[in-house]
Design goal:
The protein is α/β, with parallel strands linked by helices and 321 residues long. It contains 12 helices and 7 strands. The chain has a 5-stranded parallel β-sheet, with helices on both faces. A two-stranded antiparallel sheet has the order 6-7.
């Protein structure tokens, strides 16, 4: 009888525990994600596309995204403009924020320094909500400026580690979002791209990631794979050197891969809307810079190909020496 009661008790405990375990696994999760960058983050509202993909692919997830964007600026510029304070907002002191504001007030006296003025507005809000914004970041995304990884004008290899160290001190993961404007094609390709140059750059990014303990959205190698497998696809605008909707979609899929170490294949998101309309002749808000519809909806084949290519490119990057 004692053994029977013992077995019944264990069975009852197991039956009670199973639903609790499942409930815990399905419990809503929250990620607080900070994107630091320039127009390559701003265009197409990239972080909102990543949010949509993340919440679609991770049931129960709430993806809170915050952008700190200064158009055309590098991480070195972000440092001067005080973006590091936002990275460390969970421990930022009033004295630190006031010191940053004082430096920006001095810079803002230069009529040519439009960025100091906009940064001042941002930091006034930071100071006013210092205690309300004590939440730590879970992930900080650091966007590169151009293809370069060292030297002027980007200094990405110098400033990414500075930001990464602050982020990691707050307990956040870091993702290096590598832009690749110089390798994006505005016309369909008729010859294979130069893979040696791209892989050389990717090895430098891989070394930087190892140095900082960061994950990477390696857009050069992802773009290369897309150009190799789908040379009919273009990745930048003809009338603007920014990433077009297709490259933005590839980027969002790659960021999803870096965020979750999971394939984006099967995600339902199937369209991208540009954020800048055509300048001429009538600034039609329904058109992008090339005069095409501002929203691009991908066919089922293109969506599947882009998702697969992003995942394969991300995996290939992980194998670099």
């Amino acid at each position: 009888m004692t053994r029977t009661l013992h077995r019944l008790a264990l069975t009852a405990l197991a039956l009670v525990s199973l639903p609790l375990t499942a409930a815990a696994a399905d419990a809503p999760k929250t990620l607080n994600v900070l994107f630091i960058g320039n127009s390559f983050t701003a265009r197409h509202n990239l972080s909102t596309v990543v949010k949509a993909m993340a919440e679609a692919g991770q049931p129960g997830l709430t993806f809170n995204r915050t952008d700190v964007i200064y158009g055309g600026r590098t991480l070195r510029d972000h440092w001067r403009l005080g973006s590091q304070n936002i990275v460390k907002q969970s421990t930022l002191t009033e004295a630190e924020e006031k010191a940053t504001i004082a430096a920006l007030e001095k810079d803002a006296q230069d009529p040519k320094d439009k960025y100091a003025k906009s940064a001042l507005e941002r930091h006034a809000q930071v100071l006013a909500k210092l205690e309300a914004n004590r939440k730590p970041w879970d992930i900080v995304v650091l966007q590169s400026y151009r293809d370069d990884t060292e030297g002027d004008p980007t200094l990405y290899a110098e400033y990414a580690p500075k930001f990464a160290a602050l982020a990691k001190a707050q307990g956040a993961r870091v993702i290096l979002y590598e832009t690749t404007p110089q390798t994006q094609n505005e016309k369909p390709l008729t010859a294979a791209p130069d893979s040696d140059r791209i892989l050389k750059k990717e090895r430098a990014i891989a070394a930087l990631a190892k140095q900082t303990g960061a994950s990477v959205a390696p857009m050069a190698i992802v773009a290369l794979r897309c150009q190799t497998q789908r040379p009919d696809i273009t990745l930048r605008f003809v009338n603007d050197n920014h990433l077009n909707q297709t490259m933005a979609y590839l980027t969002a899929c790659t960021l999803y891969s870096a965020l979750f170490n999971q394939s984006p294949v099967g995600l339902p998101i199937d369209s991208i809307t540009d954020t800048r309309s055509m300048d001429a002749p009538k600034n039609d808000p329904t058109k992008d810079r090339d005069g095409n519809p501002i929203t691009r909806k991908f066919s089922e084949k293109d969506r599947a190909d882009l998702q697969r290519i992003a995942w394969e490119g991300w995996q290939e990057f992980q194998k670099l020496p």
